[in-house]
Amino acid sequence: MGVTKKRRATPKVAEAAPEYGAKPVSETFWLAFQELPDLDRVAFFERLIEDEELREDLLDSIVIMNRRGEPTRPFEEFVEELRRDGRL
């Protein structure tokens, strides 16, 4: 953990919340997290991924974010393809 990133100045909660559409509590948490030293951030993430349900939610969120720009198709079309291929 020898790498220390230069942190950007964080806005006050009242200033930042409207920009992100965030609720004040979540914005307060986010701003506090950004100010944590690197070792505390690592410890926090370690605790997050220890929780199996939360870890699954985080992984699902990452997949959703990464696929946001992909083309979509109707659910019925997908189901029909599964039936045609004998997978349903």
Write a brief structural summary.
The chain is an all-alpha fold and 88 residues long.
Can you give a write-up of this model?
The chain is mainly α and 88 residues long. The protein has one domain. The protein contains five helices and no strands. The protein has helices spanning 13-20, 24-34, 38-50, 52-67, 75-84. Helix 1 packs across helix 2 (24-34). The longest helix is centred in the last third of the chain and has 16 residues, at 52-67. The protein is elongated. The termini are far apart.
List the topology elements.
Elements (H helix, E strand, L loop, with lengths): L12 H8 L3 H11 L3 H13 L1 H16 L7 H10 L4
Assembly context of the chains: single chain
Tell me about the largest β-sheet: none
Number of helices: 5
Share of helix among residues? 55-70%
Distinctive features:
88 residues; mainly alpha; 5 helices
